[in-house]
Write a structure and sequence with these properties.
The protein has about 450 residues and is of the alpha+beta class. The chain folds into three domains: about 210 residues, Rossmann fold (3-Layer(aba) Sandwich); about 80 residues, Uridine Diphospho-n-acetylenolpyruvylglucosamine Reductase, domain 3 (2-Layer Sandwich), CATH 3.30.465; about 120 residues, no CATH class. The protein has 13 helices and 22 strands. A six-stranded mixed β-sheet has the order 3-2-1-4-6-5, with helices on both faces. Helix 3 links the parallel strand 2 and strand 3. The longest helix is centred in the middle third of the chain and has 30 residues. The radius of gyration is 32 Å and the shape is elongated.
Length: about 450
């Protein structure tokens, strides 16, 4: 218990500050409530009635009555929604949203939870068994910084046995959740079957896990600072500078890519995993100057020369427009003209109806599109990549074709073999104007 007291005092919490305690009315949280009261802190008791067990309503009312009798502020809420999907995830999100609201309501700077040493051991063992991130292998931290407050877990220095002895010897009321004894749940198998074996070997095994967790978190904090610095230097506007990236150690490369993907996917981050990171690394290390890989949610990662670009495709509407004399769309214009003294420009094309079929069409690019050049064919994707057209713009870029689908022109970028020189026969001249650019260049 001395370690817990010293830890709390080490936080240097001011006497007039309010502390929110996540309290289930179980022995762990009631133990922590008693400790905080004896340290003379002003505690707001926050309780969630999950309505999952028949005892839940009784525990809600008993805790509320305890708070009234001891002049404690009680904030309680009941879950009334029907749970769809992962029940545990729903409950956890509901609880922490509620706690967040209570913290903000009282302008508190600390949310205390009653996770103890046995919880830490169970969490680490579960993550080691099923796999996790490097940070995840550390279990949970004793102090976690949120936007405007900190989550604090001071009971990590105690075992469940220590806590039960404390509440019983101090006549503190509490309720036991019988579901914690049911080994149908994975965590309970670790709690009821594996943890007792470890304690037979070393009764203070939780202290070894605390040290392990501390080391993991310390190393992770250092790596995250390095990654944050490199990320801000190398990643800008959805593009990663490969010149500096390729000389980094593999660990930093992996962490930077994971950070990029996390920021792109956000709540859908579970859609990607380590295999996707390896796929991107293979793309970077390949000899191909222009190539790409597809990831979930229509994310395409493309490499061209010294740039790695992350872009979303299919965020556009297909179009195919018959072109006659003028077409205005988005930030560009196509128009037929009668004559020009421009000799050569990718912003201008001369065509002969002897070699193409009218009417002309303007459409967006499609997968597999190729253009016939004077020296062979080339994929439109490669041409647009070399022209440094952003990935999310490449499938919207206008393509000029004839009536049978022959690609004649990528306006402003590349002309096909059907383009006629100024001294050749032609009967159609089309020019392309893009807002903010000079088409004659």
């Amino acid at each position: 218990m001395e370690d817990v007291i010293n830890f709390i005092k080490g936080l240097k919490i001011y006497e007039d500050e309010k502390i929110v305690l996540a309290c289930s009315y179980g022995p762990d949280s009631m133990c922590l409530l008693d400790i905080l009261r004896k340290l003379n802190f002003e505690v707001i008791v926050a309780h969630v009635n999950h309505k999952y067990r028949k005892e839940s309503d009784r525990e809600f009312s008993d805790l509320k009555e305890y708070c009234i009798n001891n002049n404690l502020i009680f904030e309680g809420i009941e879950i009334k929604e029907d749970v769809v999907g992962n029940r545990e995830e729903f409950y956890r999100n509901f609880r922490y949203n509620f706690f967040d609201n209570v913290v903000n309501k009282y302008h508190a700077k600390y949310l205390f939870t009653a996770h103890h040493g046995d919880d830490l051991v169970e969490t680490i063992l579960m993550r080691l068994s099923r796999g996790a991130s490097f940070k995840g292998y550390g279990g949970f931290s004793t102090v976690v910084k949120k936007n405007n407050y900190k989550i604090v877990r001071p009971l990590v220095y105690l075992t469940k046995k220590d806590i039960l002895e404390y509440v019983d010897s101090n006549n503190i009321p509490y309720a036991i959740d019988e579901t914690n004894l049911d080994s149908v749940y994975t965590r309970n198998k670790y709690r009821n079957e594996i943890l007792p074996i470890l304690k037979e070997i070393n009764p203070n095994v939780h202290k070894k896990f605390i040290k392990f967790s501390y080391i993991i978190n310390e190393y992770n904090d250092y790596i995250e600072k390095e990654v944050d610095t490199l990320y801000s230097q190398l990643y800008l506007n959805n593009r990663l500078d490969l010149n500096e990236f390729i000389i980094l150690p593999l660990l930093l490369k992996q962490c930077i890519l994971k950070k990029v993907l996390f920021n792109i996917y956000n709540k859908d981050i579970n859609r990607v995993n380590d295999s996707h990171v390896e796929l991107i690394l293979d793309l970077i290390n390949s000899d191909k100057k222009n190539s790409s890989v597809n990831l979930p949610n229509n994310l395409v990662v493309s490499k061209y020369y010294n740039i790695l670009e992350f872009g979303i495709v299919n965020n556009y509407s297909d179009y195919d427009i018959v072109f006659d004399s003028e077409l205005v769309k988005d930030n560009w214009v196509l128009m037929r003209i009668n004559s020009t003294d421009i000799v050569k420009s990718n912003y201008l094309i001369r065509l002969s109806t002897k070699y193409i079929e009218l009417p002309l069409h303007v459409r967006n690019r499609k997968v597999g599109d190729k253009i016939e050049l004077r020296n062979g064919t080339k994929k439109l994707g490669e041409i647009l990549s070399e022209a440094k057209i952003p990935k999310d713009e490449r499938y919207k870029y206008p393509i000029v074709c004839d009536n049978v689908g022959k690609i004649l022109w990528i306006p402003g970028i590349k002309k096909s073999k059907f383009d006629k020189q100024i001294n050749e026969d032609y009967d159609i001249i089309v020019k392309y104007i893009k807002k903010g650019e000079n088409y004659e260049k």
